[in-house]
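Ticket #4471: structure output looks truncated?

Reporter: J.K.
Steps to reproduce: submitted the chain below (268 residues) through the standard prediction queue, then opened the result file.
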Amino acid sequence: VIWWYHLTVSSGGLLETVGPRRAAVENFNASWMAVSSVGDLFFAGRPVAVTPRPTYDSIFRQDAVNLATGDSFNPSEAFSRANTGAPNPKAYTPSGVAVDSFYVYWGNEENGTAHGSVVKGSSTSSGVLRAVHGAVDSVRGVSVTGTHVFFASPSGIYGVPKTTPTTVEDNTQGLVVAPPTDGSAWDPLALAWDGENTLFLTDAAAGVLYSLPAQNVQAHNLTKFVDSPNVHGLAIIGFSSMASPAHAGPGLLVALVVALACGVGLRE
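Returned output as attached by the reporter:
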């Protein structure tokens, strides 16, 4: 199940849910997800209530109208192994879903050099596909800014200008942050852009949320933003007013999802 919540920020600056949670998608095992500017939900996952059950994930779209009307059982399959090319489909092991006004972007968690490390497809049609990067085997989180596509991999943090006309095939091109060489813990997972000049990155092994510049794809150092043991998912939430006068006005809130003994999610 994918749940959706109404959120508020308490006077103490904590993220809280308001009212009951609602199902956005049911009968699916889902992982990475993103919401478009028109409210369509894209996610990587597979149905669990069909026979035979699929053995791999695809990219699905849950239309905004379904979310508004409470129809949580009918997302449409947008990109799969069956419709993204043969013999090397570009939706092979999709991960790190991101969207902008025109395209859906995803990584492949396995065999990215054969199927595309990061791929983009039209958000309204499954017919337009292109590998943005093809030199990294394993990709996790993907994030897009107004001008660039960034992605996280055990091989490093990479960035590619959206205007790059051909697939990047050099695994040193666009390497923004190289992995540590001193044996330090390193397990980069999720990326999120703050809408301005900063990109945030979760490192599950180090238990740290980092920040880095998002304006270009030059080499940068990571800056520790906050310690967050067991950190996994990440989102940037915009708000226009807060419960406390001390927090009043426009701003941004970084929301983290951590792995708990009982699962992953928000506290109600």
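Triage note (M.O.): checked the attachment and the full token line is present. The helical segments are 64-69, 112-115.
Status: closed, working as intended.
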